[in-house]
Structure formats: C-alpha cells, structure tokens
Amino acid sequence: MRSFTSVELLIDQRAHRFLDSAPAGGARSKLTEFVVFGLKQGWACIFGAALLAVLLAARLWYPDDAGLARNDFLTLAAVVIQILMVATRLETVRELRVIVLFHLVGTVMELFKTDVGSWSYGAEGVLRIGAVPLFSGFMYAAVGSYMVRVYRLFDLRFARYPRRWITAIMAAAIYVNFFTHHYLWDARWVLLAAVAVVFGRCVMHFRVFRRKFRMPLVLAFLLVALFIWIAENIATWSGAWLYPSQVDGWQMVSLDKLGAWFLLMIISVVLVAWVYKPQAPEAEENASAEVPLEAGMGPAG
C-alpha cells in the first residue's frame, strides 16, 4: 500500500484500534466500509472543501467596504490553506509538485478563457494577472490535491491501464482543444469517443477498509466530473466567477461543462501519473475478497 503522510499514519493507527473490533461480515461490516469510504473521501477533499468554505464565507460575510479587496482576500486565504497543508504534513512535498503543475496549467487556461469571454471575474484587487485573480489557480490545485490524495488513501490500482505515452498524447490534445475550439472545429466529441476507446477496458481497484472494490475507470471519471460540476455551481453562486449566462442573475451551470470536466479528468490523471505510476492490482489469494461496484460501494474517485 502507498505510504501515508505522518499525520495520516497516526490517524490510521488510531482508527484501526476502533475499527479492528468491527465484524468482518454482515450489515455492520458493510456499514463500516461505507463510513470509512465517506471519511476517506472527505479527507481527500480537504483542500477543496476548505477553499469552497472560504468562497462561501466571503460571499455571505465579507464586508463591501473592507480595505482589502475580496479577491485579494481569497488569494491570501488560498495561499494560507496551501501552506498549512504542507506544514501540517497533510500533503507531501512530492505531491506539492504536481499540485503546483495543476495550478500553472489552470492559470494559463484562465488567462485565455477570460480573454475570449468564456467567463469573468470581478475586477477588484491587485493580486491578479490581467483579469484573472490569482486565487483561480488554486481551484485547479484543489482538484490536483484531491487526485493525489485519493490515489494513495484508497491504494488505487488499475487493470489494463493504457500506455502512459498514449494517455499523455490524449491529454495534450484535450488541453489544446480547450483553446483551439474557439477558432477551429471543436473536437470535443471525438476526444470523448477516444477516451472511451482508450480507457474503456481499464478497471480501477481500490481498498476502503478490509475489503477491495472495483469499478470501470471511465465511470470514475464521470462521477468526479459530476462532483466538480456541483462544486462549480456553489462557487459561481458565491460570485467567485460568472459565466455569461449568469451575469444578469445566477442560474445553474450548463451541463455542457460536465463534459469539459470529464475531459479535464484525463489531464488530471496524466499529471498524477507523474507522481504515482499506475500499478496493476495485486494477485488475490481469495477472489471473493474483491467486490464489484454493483455489489454495494461507490467510486474511489
């Protein structure tokens, strides 16, 4: 199993003192697995959850006449969250590298997308590049934080994972299309079909507590994309940024964005693979110890 941070190892040891007494079968066993699954997912989301909480708090309580612009406050708060994540050993320096890469990739996209009018931010504040406040990159970093953390918390393994050079080419094509579709033909549907072909046979294996589960990786991509789309609705309601359709009054983010987030998952997986090389599942001594998704658990990511 991939190593925890020192803080997570301490939590894991204490949790085992309590959970080891739980029955290995029956309804209580399933309930234990479900609760642990939820707690691990929450722990993996801690960066994004903290950032989303700050966005909501700023929307509800940040004073309009404050000396510090709200966008600058959000940027400083995001920096503090990231520092605390590393200082308290909730993230490793190794993982920070890929999170910073998420930040840079996201900021470049933000600069382009705001310039062509895909979405917009409030103009207040000085901690920004052009029309893009610096906190925006941290929202992509939050996705990166979740991906690297869920990867080790659930000890993810992948059966029939495609060759990494193929996934890298696909991720590059997806990223380029985010820019070029404003001027050329939008290859989104071709890319979605390519994802289905390349990753269609890949199955993700993950451990919750005692038991291991599996699910199609494409389904995991879709579920994470759905989760991010929900968070995006909360963030736009908070006024962090607005799509053109929301300028005259907030409304739900278009479901078209769900496809965009699905494609972003491919970029995310390729970046995470830079830190954690995808590993095949270990041979099971008892095949019944591993449970398919339909037997009663949700996704690991």
Mind telling me the C-alpha Rg?
20 Å
**SSE topology string:** HHHHHEEHEHHEEHHE
Q: Name the overall outline.
A: globular
Q: Alpha-carbon distance between the termini?
A: 17 Å
Could you list the spans in which at least 5 consecutive residues all have pLDDT below 50? 284-289, 294-301
Q: Could you say which structural class the secondary elements and strand pairing correspond to?
A: alpha+beta
Please describe the biggest sheet, giving its number of strands, its sense, and whether it closes into a barrel. 4 strands, mixed
The fraction of residues in strands falls at 5-15%
Give me the number of helical elements: 10
- What spatial order of strands do you see in the largest sheet? 3-4-5-6
Quaternary structure annotation: single chain
The overall strand count is 6
Mean pLDDT: 85
The helicity comes to 55-70%
